[in-house]
Specification:
Length: 145
């Protein structure tokens, strides 16, 4: 019975949390890669220096409550890529735009296009704010490579 429940949860997470049936091509607008990076303003500087434990805890809570964990794990591939070291591999600006405007990034950014081609599931727009992105980035900085 646990296996059926687990499989049902994964199927529901996939259907509702990771794309909802629309492809990136159906929802994205045609723009240049630079436009994808500029349409969602990054209003805050990237977290740096020592980890802010309170901000990281807020990011961890968002990671769970916003459903990020249904597609991503820290140390393992799932529906989306593992996130360990993502703050070393990607700039804060790129990360911000990917979280705030994933459709535009998938349509226009070469790295986002490659991730979509590899995983076959578009990142979903979770309605995050720039403040949410900062907290998520700080949480993920704890898991640098």
């Amino acid at each position: 019975m646990k296996t059926r429940s687990g499989a049902l949860l994964v199927a529901l997470a996939f259907a509702f949390g990771c794309g909802g049936g629309e492809t990136a091509e159906q929802t994205a607008t045609e723009e240049t890669p630079q436009a994808a990076m500029t349409e969602a303003p990054a209003t805050m500087e990237a977290p740096s220096g020592p980890i802010d434990a309170a901000l990281a805890a807020q990011g961890e809570q968002l990671f769970t409550s916003r459903g990020c964990a249904s597609c991503h794990q820290i140390d393992a591939r799932l529906i989306g890529p593992a996130l360990k070291g993502v703050t070393d591999r990607r700039s804060y600006e790129w990360f911000t735009h990917m979280v705030l405007k994933p459709d535009s990034m998938i349509a226009n950014d070469p790295d986002a296009k490659a991730l979509f081609a590899e995983y076959g599931t578009p990142m979903v727009n979770m309605g995050a704010t720039p403040e949410d992105v900062r907290a998520l980035f700080e949480y993920l900085r704890q898991h640098a490579e």
